[in-house]
Amino acid sequence: MLVVNKVSHRFNKNVALNDISFECKAGEVTCLIGHSGCGKTTLLRLMAGLLPLQSGEIGLNGSTLASPSLMVPPELRSVGMVFQEGALFPHMTVIDNVAFGLRESGAKERAREWLARVGLSDYAERYPDSLSGGQRQRVALARAMAPEPEVLLFDEPYANLDVPLRRTLRKDARQIIRETGAVGVFVTHDPDEVLAMGDNVVVLDQGVMVESGTPQTLYEAPQSRYTAELFGDPQILEGVIHDDGVTSPLGEWDRNVLTEPTMANGPVTLIVDANQLMLQTDGDGLQIKHIDSIGGLNRVTVKSVQGTPLDFECPRYLAEDIVVGSCVRVTPKSGAVFATQISSD
């Protein structure tokens, strides 16, 4: 198990990480996700030993890897790393790249085993510049795994690849981590990658850990506005909370639709995922002007409470009687709406 305990880091006066703590289990993939500048790559480099730890502790299976007074060198950490561009040596053949860093006899044999495992046995004597982007990333994965590390770190390795290839490589990497029992840590800014790859997720925003949990939990029941916007298809509306409920452009809602039903009265920004909205026919409801299908969702245009056109997205499959011209009531599921109070300044 890899343990990150109260880790903080600064670059001059800029706080990159602030009191981060979580655990990564063997045989599982923990994804670090957040927008650019959230601190995820800094954290990965601290795990790898590429940066000195300023505050906190990083440990592996009961042994300290890094603290303010101790820094185990990267080559002694039993940590492999796969970079975004693969970082292969252009002057070495594929097999020499994989064998690089293997000190014991039989390095070439082990390299061949790992090339076979990633489906590149026939490319052993080629050079990196003759490979496709996906093949180079497979070589990088084989090179990282050949020393049999206890931890495997991924720094957005598939960001520049096309979607079908990305899916295949994610599946391969996850399978290898499970089979070898290594700790996998995967940095990404792509929520779809988290849902496909991760066993657990740590959400970072401006150096702070917003929340953590399984991908499905964070997708279905996020505990913060940031996570809701990151994982879902957020519908953002202006509204007002009052004693009897919530007034929104889509109609009146009960307070139980809020994640915090006891929230104080006043003007708010309302955020609800498109998949959490329910439409029912209602003669006194909003009249539908247009329905457009967009992937797994519908984009619906209605005449809002204020009488102006309003677009919102909702689940793809609607009841048969919900068509252009019909009137509907739009309500979120219970506990699905995040509300942020609007400052009066």
What does this entry look like structurally?
The chain has 345 residues and is of the alpha+beta class. 22% of the residues lie in helices and 39% in strands. A 6-stranded mixed β-sheet has the order 7-8-9-3-10-11, sandwiched between helices. A 5-stranded antiparallel β-sheet has the order 2-1-4-5-6, covered by helices on one side. It starts with a strand and ends with a strand.
Q: Could you provide a short overview of the structure?
A:
This protein has 345 residues and is of the alpha+beta class. It is 22% helix and 39% strand. It is built from eight helices and 20 strands.
How is the secondary structure organized here?
Elements lengths: L1 E10 L2 E11 L4 E5 L6 H9 L6 E6 L2 E5 L2 E2 L7 E4 L11 H6 L7 H11 L15 H13 L5 E5 L7 H18 L2 E6 L2 H7 L2 E6 L2 E6 L1 H6 L4 H7 L2 E9 L2 E4 L2 E3 L12 E8 L3 E18 L2 E7 L5 E7 L11 E6 L4 E5 L4
Parallel strand pairs: 3-9, 3-10, 7-8, 8-9
Antiparallel strand pairs: 1-2, 1-4, 4-5, 5-6, 10-11, 12-13, 12-15, 13-14, 15-20, 16-17, 16-19, 17-18
Helix pairs in contact: 3-4, 4-5
H-E string: EEEHEEEEHHHEHEHEEHHEEEEEEEEE
Approximate helicity band: 10-25%
- What is the rounded distance between the termini? 48 Å
Give me the secondary-structure category: alpha+beta
Give the tally of β-strands. Answer: 20
Average pLDDT taken over every residue: 91
Largest sheet: 6 strands, mixed
How much β-strand is present in the residues? Answer: 35-45%
| Helical stretch tally | 8
- Radius of gyration, in Å, reads 25 Å
Could you give the order of strands across the largest sheet? 7-8-9-3-10-11
Low-pLDDT runs: none
